[in-house]
Design brief:
Layout (H helix, E strand, L loop, with lengths): L5 E9 L4 E4 L7 E8 L3 E6 L4 E7 L3 E3 L4 E3 L4 E6 L5 E9 L2
Antiparallel strand pairs: 1-9, 2-8, 3-6, 3-7, 3-9, 4-5, 4-8
C-alpha cells in the first residue's frame, strides 16, 4: 500500500465488551476520517496499556469528518458497550 491509499476496515459481530482496534502495521501512519457503529460504543485513544476515552455514543451512527492520526504505537480502539454483538467499521487515508 502507498501514501494516499484508502484504509478501511469492517469488523463483523464484535462481541459485547470487545473492541475493534484501528492500528496500522509497522511504520505506517493513517488519518482516520469516519468510524461507523451499529449500536452503543465508546472511543478510546490508546497505546495498548493506557486508554483515554474521547467519546461515546449510546445508539447507532458514526463519527464523521474527523482527523484521527494513528500509528502502530498510538491508535484508536472502538469498544462495543451494547448488550449484544455489532458490526464496526472505519475509513481513512494512509499518510506514511
Amino acid at each position: 500500500m502507498a501514501v494516499g491509499d484508502v484504509k478501511n476496515g469492517l469488523s463483523v459481530a464484535v462481541g459485547a465488551g470487545s473492541s475493534m482496534s484501528i492500528q496500522p502495521a509497522g511504520s505506517d501512519e493513517y488519518v482516520i476520517h469516519n468510524i461507523h457503529h451499529a449500536d452503543a460504543v465508546e472511543l478510546y485513544f490508546t497505546d495498548g496499556a493506557n486508554d483515554i476515552k474521547i467519546s461515546n455514543d449510546t445508539s447507532f451512527g458514526a463519527w464523521t469528518g474527523m482527523f484521527f492520526h494513528v500509528t502502530n504505537s498510538i491508535y484508536l480502539k472502538v469498544k462495543n458497550v451494547a448488550a449484544g454483538a455489532q458490526n464496526l467499521g472505519y475509513d481513512g487515508i494512509q499518510t506514511k
